[in-house]
């Protein structure tokens, strides 16, 4: 039996996210091809209800077959007989859906660090310790993959590698380096004395500052050299920076084209931070893969995004946190004044983009608000125009497509986004509570 997801029933249901170690990137536990092949380990999941993120309906009473920690097939319970003695996970009273993906996070950032003094007090080690904690919080909130789009060089790369090695518990990380900024732009340290610098790698301008096409190409190639999965460029001003306007372009169209071309030549996708109308359209015309924020997108920008197949990643929850909570943690008045009109316009433009059929992926700017609260955004996505099923697809199948992992999630199309990493050093016999790592 199939039935559509209702707005009232979506979030109160008990949700079990499928959480097993090493579902991803071909990391199966089978033999690597020696002469003596190990028999596959097969288990069966009884799902009372299943939302597979391919449509609007929930399927009832299905069996998910897992072979060597990879999803092999999904079948009706009436059509599949489980062999005697097989390992069975009984979720017959639960609703099962793929692990969620947040395409815009900053795992090294803290939402209680808005006072400017932390620009100078915090060290890269402080950010790294925070990232370890935030990665676990994110995973335990049901987000089994994230795209980290801006952190110290190269914190997200090291965090990704540590999770992959089983040293740290966390989601799969698609890692960028620092967001690439113009001098005096959204990614620079502005309005301090000229002798004030906070850089780990001043000879490389922290792998972040670029002011010409040639400099952009160099920074992107250097970031690729040190292992990033995705490039982030800051096409306009921002809210949480000083001395710039969120609506103002910060790279020329030619410079953005150079960035997109270089990233794609290196086999990476590129995300553009862009609040302002002109910067959004320039980034789309330049060939970027996603627009982050898209706060002031106009009708032409919406049309261009749809024509070019550009994803919008619109963080429409964090306005609440910035306005209501961040001032308690030292957010300056300048930044608060930027956010007040921008957040309202962003939500209305989100509605327009949904109505126009623009591709949308889930992204929250986690780190601006506390990590682990990522799912709060679903409420606003439905409030401003999505159906519940569309909202979940934005955080599953659409997000997987954006981050370039759509074909790397098991063997069944339904489960292309399932799974998560868990530390290989987990204590023997330790039990895991439902929906948590």
Give the low-pLDDT segments: 6-15, 18-34, 409-437
CATH level-4 homologous superfamily of the largest domain: Metal-dependent hydrolases
CATH architecture of the largest domain, by name, is Alpha-Beta Barrel
The separation of the N and C termini measures 31 Å
Radius of gyration: 22 Å
Overall SS class: alpha/beta
CATH topology of the largest domain: TIM Barrel
Number of strands: 13
β-strand percent reads: 15-25%
Give a structural overview.
This protein is of the alpha/beta class and 437 residues long. It folds into 2 domains: 2-98, Urease, subunit C, domain 1; 100-408, Metal-dependent hydrolases (TIM Barrel, Alpha-Beta Barrel), CATH 3.20.20.140. 29% of the residues lie in helices and 18% in strands. The strands form 3 sheets. Strands 1, 2, 3, 4, 5 and 6 form a 6-stranded mixed sheet that branches. It has a 4-stranded parallel sheet with strand order 10-11-12-13. Helix 4 packs parallel to helix 5 (253-265), helix 6 (277-286) runs parallel beside helix 7 and helix 8 (318-324) runs antiparallel to helix 9. Residues 6-15, 18-34 and 409-437 have low confidence and may be disordered.
Tags for this model:
437 residues; TIM Barrel; 2 domains; 13 strands
Walk me through the topology.
Blueprint: E1 2-4, E2 15-17, E3 42-50, E4 57-67, E5 70-76, E6 87-97, E7 100-105, H1 118-121, H2 124-140, E8 143-148, H3 155-164, E9 172-175, H4 213-225, E10 230-234, H5 253-265, E11 269-274, H6 277-286, E12 290-293, H7 299-308, E13 311-313, H8 318-324, H9 333-356, H10 377-383, H11 388-394, H12 397-402
């Amino acid at each position: 039996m199939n039935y559509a997801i209702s707005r009232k029933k979506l979030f109160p249901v008990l949700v079990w996210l499928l959480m097993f170690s090493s579902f991803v990137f071909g990391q199966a536990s089978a033999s690597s091809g020696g002469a003596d092949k190990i028999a596959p380990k097969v288990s069966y999941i009884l799902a009372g209800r299943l939302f597979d993120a391919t449509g609007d309906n929930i399927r009832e009473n299905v069996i998910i077959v897992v072979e060597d920690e990879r999803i092999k097939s999904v079948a009706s319970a009436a059509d599949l007989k489980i062999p005697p003695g097989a390992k069975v996970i009984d979720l017959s009273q639960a609703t099962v859906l793929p692990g969620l993906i947040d395409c815009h996070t900053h795992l090294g950032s803290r939402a209680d660090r808005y006072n400017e003094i932390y620009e100078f007090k915090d060290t890269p080690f402080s950010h790294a310790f925070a990232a370890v904690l935030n990665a676990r919080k994110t995973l335990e909130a049901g987000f089994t993959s994230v795209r980290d789009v801006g952190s110290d060089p190269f914190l997200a790369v090291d965090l990704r590698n540590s999770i992959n090695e089983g040293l740290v518990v966390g989601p799969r990380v698609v890692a960028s380096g620092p967001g690439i900024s113009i001098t005096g732009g959204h990614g620079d340290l502005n309005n301090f004395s000229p002798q004030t610098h906070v850089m780990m790698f001043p000879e490389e301008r922290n792998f972040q500052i670029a002011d010409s096409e040639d400099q952009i190409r160099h920074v992107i190639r250097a970031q690729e050299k040190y292992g990033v999965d995705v490039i982030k460029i800051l096409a306009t001003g921002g809210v949480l920076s000083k001395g710039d306007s969120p609506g103002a372009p910060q790279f020329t169209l030619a410079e953005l084209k150079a960035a997109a071309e270089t990233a794609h030549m290196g086999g990476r996708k590129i995300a553009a931070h862009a609040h302002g109308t002109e910067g959004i359209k320039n980034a789309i015309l330049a060939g970027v893969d996603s627009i982050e924020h898209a706060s002031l997108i106009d009708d032409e920008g919406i049309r261009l995004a749809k024509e070019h197949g550009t994803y919008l990643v619109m963080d429409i929850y964090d306005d609440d946190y910035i306005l209501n909570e961040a001032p308690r943690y030292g957010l300056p008045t300048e930044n608060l004044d930027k956010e007040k009109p921008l957040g309202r316009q962003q939500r209305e433009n989100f509605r327009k983009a949904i109505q126009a059929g623009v591709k949308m992926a889930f992204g929250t700017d986690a780190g601006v608000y506390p990590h682990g609260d990522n799912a709060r955004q679903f409420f606003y996505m439905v409030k401003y125009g999505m159906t519940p099923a569309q909202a979940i697809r934005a955080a599953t199948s659409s997000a997987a497509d954006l981050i370039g992992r759509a074909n790397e999630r098991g063997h069944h199309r339904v489960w292309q986004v399932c799974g998560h990493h868990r530390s290989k050093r987990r204590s023997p016999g330790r039990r895991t509570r439902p929906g948590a790592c």
